[in-house]
Amino acid sequence: MYQPVELDVSDVSKAFAILGFFIVVYGQISYIVKERLYLSEPLIAVTLGIIVGPYVLGWLDPLSWSDQEINRETTYQFTRLVVGIQVLFTGISLPKAYLRREIISLTVLLFGIMTTAWFVTALLIWGLIRLPASLAPDGIGYSLTFLEALCIAAAVTPTDPVLANSITKGRYAEKHVPANVRNIILAESGANDGLGFPFLYLAIYLINRSSVDAGLSVGSEVGRWVYGVVIYQILLSVVYGALLGYIARKTLRWAESRKYIDKDSFFAFGLGLALFTLGTTGLFGSDDILACFVAGNSFTWDDWFRIRSEESDIQDILDMLLNAAVFIYIGAIIPWGFYHTDGGIEAWRIVVLGITVLLLRRPPWVIASMKIIPALSTWGEAAFAGFFGPIGVGAVFYIEVALRKIPDDGSRDLLRNLYTPVVLFCVFSSVLVHGVTVPISKLGPNIVRKSATLTKTRSITLTSKHTPRSSDEAGRGGGSGEKELWNPLYSLWQGLLSVALFWRRDSFWRRDAESRSKTHAHISEPSNAVRRASIEEEGRSEGGGAELNQSDSVGTEQSNASGSGSGSSGEGPRGARPVPSALELPTSHAHTGNANVNTSANNNHSSPIQPPAQASSASTEHQQTRKQAKPYSSLLHDLQMMLDKEMSAERSEAREEAGAGWPEEVRRALEKAKLEQEAREAEGTGVGGSAVKQQQQQHQGAQGMAAPDSMPGTPSRVRFHGR
Question: Which residue intervals define the domain Cation/H+ exchanger transmembrane in the entry (predicted)?
Fold first, then answer.
């Protein structure tokens, strides 16, 4: 039958739609979620995966896409890719030579703390995980052996770098988490994802003695473990990763110094290095996760690439995309039907296990070892680093690694059936607890304190809004005293009303965002201070001419307004007066950029001479203002400085001469010139000629007499005395 429209309602199409929906919708409120509510992306993504998964809406069920083997292979490769990229980026983000400087701290955490956490987690699993009697063949409840519990515990022992980013990045981390704590959490989470293999394979090798390796002694299995895991996988991957990172660093610097590489490829180099390391290490069967971390740290050992990569957001963007995809997937594959009496593990047992693993797996042992961990200086830092050791994508990766190696001959069916549900619930517990710890610790006290303040006059309600405590606070927006507390309930209520009442002017759909943009930077602006400064500097250089003229004009106005001389009508702005025409230098117009002031000075001979002190102050302020303007080039800048210095020296000399008084010959010359000008004007009109000649004769005969208080042609406020 012919169908004019062919629908593609496939699982892949639905998965793409859900992932795109999360990125688009969550992205529009991501600032509120991360910087105001302090919620992590993994928590939101896992919640969405659970909602659209097979146990709620049933829109997404990855385990039904194919048979069990293909699903396991997909999960293995997907989580391997995510963890490999994340640990390499973690290695890049560490400071210069960090592994060498913190070798003692990392040794204690990666060997002492990890080993203790492995045994403690195995004890908890061994004591709590027990299948009900209804599922047992003999009608008696049965549980795992301690060796099988060690095998499961190996998957949840390493900390996860993906979840660690939620506590080591962002506004909360920058304000409240010291840099040394952030760095040690990142370094440990990046390294121990690969160092979990020795714990896992040791348990698996000992388990195989009862099935595929029956008849081999414990010593033989331990020898195989030392050769096959410790040497071939761990040590070889460390050497290979270090060599690969060193070669990548040298070749990239060589290409960059010769301008062979463009900007996009430069910032994408880390991603390419991660993929190359994963692929080549996997070809010879070594530990590709550990090799990625070592390669990333070796690649930026001298901080050269790390400092330059801070100008790019490619790592943060990849983190967001990978986190969204993998945690939605994890939320959709959690087997919720297994956590009840009829299906498998009793609910209270798995809940108690999730809580006790988070409380007893790491925090007590990190706090107890604080004295021998140099990176942690206080008990509070030790408690924080111990608690924030999350379980995440790496644990899901270890599930698939373990199921590949556990015997499938029927002797370990209980272990194979319990491995995935136990580990996935521990992952969910970690995502939930570590995702809400910061919001509770940050917003909880604020809400309680806000409730106490509001209940002094009225009870708090859903729509309670902060009211200023005084007129001072009301006038300044609460900025004078304590910072205004943010009520998330009130904000949520106002947001819902704004969306529902869409016809109002102040609704969500019609509200003008101008008021918010005045106090917040545009999100499209660079977030890095170095990048913002470089862009602003580039803008100033492009508009240098106009900005320089504007700055000069402003500087001249400021210098004119800085004086304290008394003003009168017609004298212009109050303050120091411009330099008179007698003291003007030929280069003044070129430097002051204010021809109007100089013109008025030339036309007004009765303007007072600027006092030396005021003139010097104005000139200094003017020069300081000019220094703030960006010069066109370094050569022009040097030329300007030289001319300013020369002009300042000449003006100073002229002021000294003016302050000492005009020389006698200069005064006589000025008076003679004035009389000659008046004589010419009188001859032109035919009036007063005899009077002018009489004045000239009197002036020529006045030798050695004292100079008058005020002479024509000189400023009226300057009094000269004979020498």
Answer: 30-439
Looking at the fold, whether 72 and 179 belong to one and the same domain comes out as yes
Structure tokens, 338: 């297994």
Half-sphere exposure of 126 (CA within 13 A, CB side): 14
- For 486-544, the pLDDT digits (tens) are 566 676 777 777 777 766 666 655 655 444 444 444 444 445 555 555 555 555 554 54
The residue segments making up the domain with residue 364 are: 11-218+313-446
Same domain, yes or no, for 653 and 673? no
Task: Please state the pTM of the whole predicted model.
Answer: 0.65
Following DSSP, what letter does each residue of 314-344 receive, concatenated?
HHHHHHHHHHHHHHHHHHHH--GGGSSTTTS
191 and 170 part of one domain: yes
Dihedral sign of CA atoms 366, 367, 373, 377 in order: positive
Neighbour-count burial for 512-541, b at 16+ CB within 10 Å, e otherwise:
eeeeeeeeeeeeeeeeeeeeeeeeeeeeee
Strand, helix or coil for residue 585: coil
Query: Cα angle at 549 between 547 and 555, to 5 degrees?
Result: 100
Question: Distance (Å, rounded) from C-alpha 317 to C-alpha 324?
Answer: 11
What is the rounded CA–CA span in Å between residue 650 and residue 583?
9
Q: Is residue 259 part of a domain?
A: no
Percent of the chain scoring above 90 in pLDDT: 28
In a domain, 230, yes or no: no
User: How many domains would you assign to the chain?
Assistant: 4
Together in a domain, 655 and 681: no
> Distance between CA atoms of 341 and 348, rounded to whole angstroms?
10
Q: Do 415 and 387 belong to one domain?
A: yes
Does residue 598 lie in a domain region? yes
**Range list of β-strands (E), 330-489:** none
Judge contact between 332 and 50, C-beta under 8 A.
Answer: yes
In a domain, 540, yes or no: no
Asked whether the beta carbons of 176 and 168 are under 8 A apart, the reply is no
Which spans in 528-592 are helix H?
529-542, 544-561, 588-592
Question: Are residue 386 and residue 492 in the same domain, yes or no?
Answer: no
Residues 364-403: tens digit of each pLDDT: 999 999 999 999 989 989 999 999 889 999 999 999 999 9
Measured over all CA atoms, what is the biggest interatomic distance in the chain, rounded to whole angstroms?
Answer: 148
